[in-house]
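Encode chain A's predicted structure.
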Amino acid sequence: STAGADSTTRLVLLREALSRFKNLKYVFYVSDFYEYNYPRTRTKTFYQKQMHEWIPENLRSQVRPTFKERLGDVVSYYSFEDATETIKNCIKGKRYDYYLENGMTTRSMVIADSDKLVASDPNYDIKLDQAFTKSIGLHYEATLRGFDRLSPTTEEIMHEVVAETRKRGVELIIIMSPYHPKFHQLLDAKHLSERRRQWASFVHSLEGPQVRVFDYENRAIFPPSGTFWRDGHHYKDTAAHIILKDVAATIFPGKF
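Encoded structure for chain A:
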């Protein structure tokens, strides 16, 4: 399963998985709207030796982070020691091993404000609404500003994903992420509704032999409450279980 990273990182992880797991039958790809506005990869992926080698050569120049983006990544995500070392490596063009031997990292998602709230608080609903509004605004500024078209690079990466899985006889399950109603309101206010429809149209165009698309973007299968949502664009494991059960019931009819 691949989700939560830029498209290049997802492709890299997919190629690694296809190489390592010979009996792989299904790959779940959670398609995110923001992917199509941010084609370049993060510094820690592009300058990590093993992961860099999995980036197709024809895409490397397109997904290489700019100097400004590299500097931003370093300042935002790295300790001072890591930042100093990473800046040196970026300047020298040196590749380095950042991840653990098993491919995992020691980093996790930033805790959402909603995770700190207490459900028994009389003002819980108000605070939850404020937390969602704040997170959605930050997400827009970080990933959706200037979204004037779907990225051709991201579209090319997705065609690579489809080609890689088909070549190995693996079924690709593309899940279009649901978004909180408040997130939809923001997209409408920022005039991104048409871009969202273009995204949906492109993802559905990938359907075909060994490729299925499950569209939850406009299909509410769980309530917009704190039980299921961390913020306006990340849902919790409780919601993920509902989605996976729904997908499994379609793939394996009669078994779920």
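Residues 96-110 have pLDDT under 50 and may be disordered.
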